[in-house]
Amino acid sequence: MIEARGLTKRYGDTLAVDALTFDVPPGAVTGFLGPNGSGKSTTLRMIMGLDRPDAGQARIGGRRYADLEWPLREVGALLEARTFHPGHSAHRHLLALATGGGVARSRVEEVLGLVGLADAAHRRAGSFSLGMAQRLGIAAALLGDPAVLLFDEPVNGLDPEGVRWIRELMRSLAAEGRTVLVSSHLISEMALTAEHLVVIGQGRLLADSSVADLTADGRSLEEAFFALTSDSAQYRGTERRR
Amino acid sequence: MSTTTGTVTGTGRPGFAAAARMEWLKLGSLRSTRWALSATALGMIAIGVVTMANTRAPQGAEAARTFDPVNNVLAGIALGQLVVGVIGVLMITGEYSSGSIRATLAVVPDRRRLLAAKTAVLGTVVLALGEAAAFVTFFAGRAALTDTIHRPGLGDAGVLRAVVLSGVYLALVGLIGLALGVMTRHTASAIGILVGLFYVVPAVAAGLTGTTVAKFFPTLIAANSLAVAKPVADVLSPWTGFTVLLLYTAAALAAADRMLRRRDA
Prior knowledge:
The complex is a heterodimer. Chain A is α/β, with parallel strands linked by helices. Chain A has one domain: P-loop containing nucleotide triphosphate hydrolases (Rossmann fold). Helix content of chain A is about 35%, strand content about 25%. Chain A contains nine helices and nine strands. In chain A, the strands form two sheets. In chain A, strands 5-6-7-3-8-9 form a six-stranded mixed sheet, sandwiched between helices. In chain A, strands 2-1-4 form a three-stranded antiparallel sheet, with helices on one face. In chain A, helix 3 packs across helix 4. The two termini of chain A are about 25 Å apart. By secondary structure, chain B is mainly α. Chain B has one domain. Chain B contains twelve helices and no strands. The chains are: A alpha/beta, B mainly alpha. At the A-B interface, helix 2, helix 3, helix 4 and helix 6 of A face helix 1, helix 5 and helix 6 of B.
């Protein structure tokens, strides 16, 4: 369970996240949708304790991230594609994280196999394609077998097979009773993956409901999304990939 | 495909020791770091040997009174300190430029613990390297000294102090580099400040005011206060200089700790 309560973040004069309150329940994939620049990544970073909120709080299982006793085994996160030193191998990167996080080193081989990187485990990770980097990030998120998982734009750079793989991965993680929060700007992907949606625009909450409710009047999820965000998309008409 | 297999066994609730082991793994697995440290040690030894081989016996009573071959043999520190300082910088700025700082802080959210772990690992590695380089340089350089000059021994007054403090100096420079890296989060900025503080500003100060101001800068403390068997006039005494350096290092790390804990990552 993730709880955001009045989360607020200001960068200079810009209110990036504006009193955001929502819950992410366990046992379901919750999609975190919003136009570019709507504050999704900032929100995830505040949940992870990387950015300090100007007001409000984010709690995971009732605690702030900084107060978790065993962070690596409680929360796993893929925040951006490259969060490893290019001179380290995938194996060494994961081994360092496992060591620092109090997870047995045998788990490193397990997650490398799980994400399909076993054959590339000892190559310099700096030579990885975006898709492989993404898989390494997912391996790091799964390292501690955590009950709460955050994925920021996980399908970026993955080929169609990889996209399907991660869709099934997230669904099965949720089916095991875990809390899964996935941010995306890809509505079609969310329509296939998520059961619950949190939609934000310009840092404010626009919707917090099930996919079924959003599309109950016969609209497609895409139509429902554009109706919700029509007032808050700052960059419409420009490139929509981040 | 199953998402998780087996069970995750823990190695105990992670604390400072786990964070330090993580930093040790990260530092040790970069080939560039190992090369730079080895090259530093070899460079210091080579400079010491060449300087000693070219050291001539002093002419006249005054020159003989201040003649200090121990200072000559440790001349390589002026070069070695730059590499060591840069390795300290890269230990943290490399994490910001690669993005791995996010993964690191997810595992060790206690930022003071993270900085303490980096400080301990870097300090230990560079201290061991610095002492090894200082002692090997001393013995290799002493052997290269011409026969007409009395060879200094570790038992002579001030010699052991000079060699040991020179090794410690390198460790302190590494930690100052780390602190600068935390403060700037940027490799080029941190190295720029490092070069400014260790080479440019003291050189300018020495040109304008002699030793009055320059004697407080680390490079001059190392060359004139630490790496000497015979204390030099008009500069800080060995132990005063060493205390000043310890204060600089502590102040830099304290400022780095404060900034690391207050800022967004």
